[in-house]
Design a protein that fits this description.
Strands 1-4-3-6-9 form a five-stranded mixed β-sheet, with no helix packed on it. Strands 2-5-10-7-8 form a five-stranded mixed β-sheet, with no helix packed on it. By secondary structure, it is mostly beta strands. The N terminus is likely disordered. Helix content is about 0%, strand content about 35%. The N and C termini lie far apart (about 25 Å).
Length: about 120
C-alpha cells in the first residue's frame, strides 16, 4: 500500500506497509507526484508495488529500501527529487532527478537512501 506524506516544517518519518504476499499490480504515478516502486517497473512484469509516494515539497525519512527500485518524478514545473544517505536530509546525495522522468523512471539501488527531498 503506498504511503502519501504531507510536508511540514519538520522532517516527517515515513511509515512503511508490509508488502502483500499476493500479486500487486503496478499502480500509475499521477501527475504532480514522486513515486518509488520495488524493482524495475519496465521489465514487462505487472507485479511492482508502489512503496512510497510524495506530493509536497519537503524532506522525508524512508526505511527498508534495500536493493533495486524505480523512482518516477512526475512533478510539474521543473520540480526535482533527490535521495540522501542520511536521515532528515543529511549525508551525501545518492541520486538526483532534477527533471520530470515520468515516462522513463530511474532504476537504481536505493540501499544507501535514508531520506528523500522533494524540491522546487
Amino acid at each position: 500500500m503506498p504511503v502519501t506524506l504531507a510536508a511540514s516544517a519538520a522532517p516527517l518519518a515515513a511509515t512503511t506497509a508490509p508488502l502483500a504476499a499476493s500479486k500487486v499490480q503496478t499502480a500509475a504515478c499521477s501527475s504532480g507526484y514522486v513515486c518509488i516502486y520495488k524493482g524495475d517497473i519496465f521489465d514487462g512484469s505487472s507485479n511492482h508495488p508502489m512503496v512510497y509516494t510524495f506530493y509536497r515539497y519537503g524532506t522525508y525519512n524512508v526505511a527498508n529500501l534495500v536493493g533495486d527500485y524505480t523512482v518516477k518524478n512526475c512533478q510539474t514545473g521543473g520540480a526535482g527529487v533527490q535521495g540522501l544517505t542520511g536521515y532528515n536530509g543529511t549525508g551525501s546525495v545518492a541520486w538526483n532527478l532534477g527533471i520530470n522522468n515520468c515516462g522513463t523512471g530511474l532504476w537504481t539501488s536505493l540501499t544507501s537512501t535514508n531520506s528523500v527531498r522533494v524540491y522546487a
